[in-house]
Amino acid sequence: MxxxxxxxxxxxxxxxxxxxxxxxxxxxxxxxxxxxxLIAPVPGGLPLPGVPDFAQATALVPGALAIAxxxxxESAAVARSLRTxxxxxxxxxQELFATGAANGVGAFFGAMPAAGASRRARSTRAxxxxxxxxxxxxxxxxxxxxxxxxxx
Length: 152
Prior knowledge:
Blueprint: H1 2-8, H2 14-29, H3 57-82, H4 92-107, H5 118-129
Helix pairs in contact: 3-5
């Protein structure tokens, strides 16, 4: 449906049409009663703080370190690419500390890991220059039923 809408009517927001269509199918036709599985309800409100589960920490450490290095490099690259000549130099130590602190606190709230988001940052920079520019869509790689507490 998304591909067809993109080809036939590119100005119509296909994602919105599909979501509204799915809602109408559940509400009017009752496809959930016909055996179609739906996603579980998303809990409302803010997450309560809790201690992270360290049961599989040793198995996750190598991958987590690789992801942390990639996230740091992305954040540093985005910060450097968006810096203008009139702004002070980017302090990589401060970037690393801020990302680590955000992720450390976020771990107690089940937040998604914080990292640089070049598309969103460039869009924000463009909106500062031109307030009429469109906002950037949320990054699909960060989409989750939970909210990310730390800015990326």
